[in-house]
Prior knowledge:
The protein is mostly beta strands. The protein has one helix and eight strands. It has an eight-stranded antiparallel beta barrel.
Amino acid sequence: MTRFIACLTGAVLLVASTNALAADSTGRYFEHTTSETATTLPDGRTSLIYSAKQHSISDKADDPFNEASSDCFGRIILSKDGGVLSGSGMCFTKDASGDGLNHAWKVEAVGTSECPGMCGSFRIVDAFGKFKGTTGSGTWTRTHEFSDGTAGTYKSTYTRK
């Protein structure tokens, strides 16, 4: 009988530990540029290194980006004419309790018929606190550009463990 209870308890724990919540979400982000350094490259392109504070809200309460604040940094390469050629970076995100994740982002398109502004992708690199074990990725679209920041939308797919 003791053996049976131990096996049953082990099976319940195994099922509970592999139970994960997978979801899709959409949301909005607002970004305020905190610093920016432009360097002209030898061929006339410009390397723009910047840092920003980002805030996001989601349509799902359990989305790790919902009501979260991020410290972001990145590098954008601009053409001689000032157009975006490439860009990527990292954001360190946390909620009000200090739990969060780190995600990498990349510019995928600029000024196309499908993306008239700037669009890209992101993926969760690491997570901590109540989000530990969370994985996911998504896309973002910049919809507004201001003198000191940007705003846009995102779509994500994530799995919380």
